[in-house]
Amino acid sequence: MNTPLPQSASSQDSGNFFDFLVSCIDPRFTALHTRHMLQLGREGRYSDFSIAGGALAAISHQNPSWPVTLWENLALSMQIHGVNRLVFLGHEDCAAVKQWAQAQPNLRHLPELEWHNAIFTSATAEAQRRFPNLNIQCRVIFLSGDVLHCNCGPANTAQPTSSRMALPASAAIPSSDRQGFVEFIKAAMRSRNTLIRDERRALAIGVTEYGLSASEAREVFFAHTVAHDALPQEKLTDEVTAFLRMRATKQGVVRKADIELAIALVRRRAETSLSRAEADRLVREMMLRENLRPRRLTDMLLGG
Fold first, then answer.
1. pLDDT at 81 over 50
2. Hey, CA dihedral for 71, 73, 77, 79, is it positive or negative?
3. pLDDT number for residue 194
4. Across residues 195-208, what is the average pLDDT?
5. Which comes out higher in pLDDT, residue 231 or 130?
6. Kind and range of the H or E element at 223?
7. Which residue ranges make up each domain of the chain?
8. Does the pLDDT at position 21 exceed 90?
9. Spatial distance between the Cα atoms of 127 and 89, rounded to a whole number of angstroms
10. Cβ neighbours of residue 156 under 8 Å, at least 6 residues apart?
């Protein structure tokens, strides 16, 4: 995947828009979808349409009734609720998108973000053909809760292009250079570069310039930065919990190294000074609430 950039409210999102959100049914993301829209101040200002694959439903040939259902619901919501913006929200590790991409010879070997870009381009073209005056935005949400704005393709003339978070659909994905990003972060620390206080910029550089995955960039950033602004307890808990969920296996197993990173993050960003034992206890409580557990020897023997 390409870089996740935490979404913040902007003039585009706080204007006179009523959104029609098209998202996937993956249960890992339902709460993240809601939180994302609430963070943008969209409470009571959007209709929620969930279907397997999200935007993929707009171009589905295997399920010909799905596009019909999507466009009918959009048209009805435009009539009843005054919807004037369509938001396609894809997500990381989407099984439906992966299955579709694997059947496309020109896409199957490309990074996951390129699969979403291809779907967004075609789905946007279909939407524009039916609703030419509709504003359209395309986004990808990650297991961490971070959100990336993507271009919706050349057909989307109503899509704002001035956002500094927009990424061209044809953007080249560089090969991974983890150690290069480590040295970059260390250099920023030594020079007291303001970048180290802006996680989303750092993560963007880690992925776009060093070719790391979202989780790899986040892991490096957490492991090699010490100068962070303190976070309120609730926000810190959300951030660390998201990190633990992202690093856990499907069975809810978290490696010792990732637990240590989470503990270090708590100690660095807590508003009050915490001992190693206090930070460890907080992280263990977060894991317990999320039904996560440390990796054991049996997990290693079983390949977990």
1. yes
2. positive
3. 52
4. 67
5. 130
6. helix 214-224
7. 19-150, 174-226, 228-304
8. yes
9. 14
10. 124, 128, 136
State how far the Cα of 56 lies from the Cα of 23, in Å rounded to an integer.
10
Decide: helix, strand or coil at residue 259. Answer: helix
Taking residues 110-132, report their average pLDDT.
Answer: 91
Residue 19 has phi, psi (to 5 degrees) of -90, 150
Length of the chain counted residue by residue: 304
SS3 280: helix
pLDDT per residue as tens digits for the range 35-54: 999 888 888 899 999 999 99
Long-range contacts of 272-278 (CB under 8 A, 24+ apart): none
DSSP 157-212: TTS----TT---TT---PPP-HHHHHHHHHHHHHTT-GGGG-HHHHHHHHHHTT--
Residue 104: half-sphere exposure toward Cβ, Cα within 13 Å: 17
The three state secondary structure string of 210-221 is CCCCHHHHHHHH
The predicted model scores a pTM of: 0.51
Q: In angstroms, rounded to a whole number, what is the distance separating the alpha carbons of residues 149 and 84?
A: 18
Whether the per-residue pLDDT at 226 is higher than 70: the answer is no
Q: Percentage helix, strand, coil, to 5, in the chain?
A: 50, 10, 40
CA distances from 84 to 38, 49, 78, 142 (A): 18, 15, 7, 26
Would you identify the CATH topology of the domain 19-150?
A: Beta-carbonic Anhydrase; Chain A (3.40.1050)
**So what's the pLDDT on residue 152?**
84
